[in-house]
Amino acid sequence: MVASTARVGRTTILGFGSLLSEQSARLTFPDLDEFRLVRVRGYRRVFGHAASIFFERGIADAATKEFSSLSAEPCADASFVACAFEVDVDADAWARFEAREEEFALADAPFAALDGGAGGEGVLCTRGSDAAFVERWGRETYERKYLAHVPSIWDWSRDSGLRPCACYLRHCVLAVTKAGPAALDSFLDDTYLVDRETTLRTYLDANPHVMDTRPPESLIGRYSG
């Protein structure tokens, strides 16, 4: 894994959750092009960290620990289907991207094309650390955005009981469904809960309430796939 640094110019972004829907990706990157499905190897997709934005938007459930979001973490034998697309960025756009993905370590990760075409490297949102967040954004921001709600961003044990934010997970499933069977099957079978054993398919089978969890009216456009 190579840490990603600020850049200007043509940049490949790798999306592995809601961005797998081109329609959803264009809400964040309206001028993207060359959208395609790819396979990222050497990383595992995990719902394993707390996301402050779910508390800010009122869709976290602290009682059930349904407030985790999705990241990718190094894992030698793992792989998953992602999307890759190209964007043109300048320093300001990159700074906004870093702020939007505030808790992650942005890394340059290799990918292979699903259709046999050329692969490459793209920017991937990977597992970060609480210490890195504090160093980047400051202790006050860490305490206000995270410690006010949870004991940690990333330090959740495998038996912690942390669960995906239901509204966000439903949004991801709807978005990935639009990307087609290859993306959907990988999302269900190559995505794990915090225990790194329970697949998303198993979790959804046991928790049908997730797909019935509608977003608040103010978030319908953002969390509807």
UniProtKB/TrEMBL annotation:
It comes from the Eukaryota. This is Gamma-glutamylcyclotransferase AIG2-like domain-containing protein.
